[in-house]
Amino acid sequence: MTRIICNAGMEENGPPGFRFVYRYFVSGNSFYIFSALVLFLVGSITLVYTPFNILMNERLKMVRGLPAYEWWKNPPDEVLLRVYLFNVTNSERFEHGIDSKLELNEIGPIVFRELLRHSDVRFNDNGTMTYVATRTAVFLPEMTNISLDANLILPNFAALGMASYLWDASYFTRYGFKLMMEMLDTKMFIKTSINDCLWNLTDPLVQKAKTMMPGLVPEENMGILYQIYNKFTDEVTVFMGPENGRRFFTVDKYHGKSNLGIWEDSKCDSVQGSSEGVTYHQFVSKNDTLKYLRKTMCRVTPLKYKNEVTKSGMTMYKFILPKNVFSHPQTDPSLEDCFHNPKSTPLLSGLSDVSPCYYDFPIAASFPHFLNGDQALVKSISGLKPTEENHGSYLIVEPLTGVPVESRARSQSNLVMHPTSGFANIDKFSNMTIPMFWAEYNQVGLPWYITTLMYFTVNVLPCTQSIGSIVMMIAGLAMIGKTIFDAVFGYKKPLYSYSSLDLLPSIS
Question: Is pLDDT at 166 greater than 50 in this prediction?
Answer without folding.
Answer: yes
